[in-house]
Amino acid sequence: MSSDHRSEVIFRVPTPDDGLPVxxxxxKDRRLDTNSPYYYTMWFRDFAQESLVATIDEEVVGFLNGYxxxxxxxxxxVWQEAVKPRxxxxxxxxxxxxxxxxxxxxxxxxxxxATVSANNKPIIMVLRRFAKARSAKIENSxxxxxxxxxxxxHDEILYRIGPLAPES
Length: 168
Description:
Elements: E1 9-12, H1 19-28, H2 37-46, E2 52-56, E3 59-69, E4 72-83, H3 92-106, E5 111-116, H4 121-133, E6 138-144, E7 156-161
Parallel strand pairs: 4-5
Antiparallel strand pairs: 1-2, 2-3, 3-4, 5-7, 6-7
InterPro entries: Acyl_CoA_acyltransferase, GNAT_dom
GO molecular function: diaminobutyrate acetyltransferase activity
Enzyme class: transferase
């Protein structure tokens, strides 16, 4: 990308062929849990309407996968989000999260949830900024303690934002 030409970021619903580039992005980021390439391909078939990819010139530079909880369909869960380093787009992660959450709120979600490591300051900042912008309450508690996982895994802290209403 030359300095005099900045391509537009496009947020779109993922397709199964986005599975491999998303897996490659996650595989390079040691802070994220790496699932199999098949997982992302299947996710983008079955939960595409709850997920997003961000592209620049058709290159996937960010993604977010989420779902609506079967036992609580008014709750949108953000499972995983990542952006490529040095993508050159200010607030790409924040805007990706906001875009995905707003789509789900427009479809009836009243709450947004995500589990986060206490060390993951960037996503905690995204969650807090989103809650503040919506004047929504944000609560957190340990959803799954580290003892549920093998090796050196952290507590999974649940952040719950809401109730939310569509913006007027």
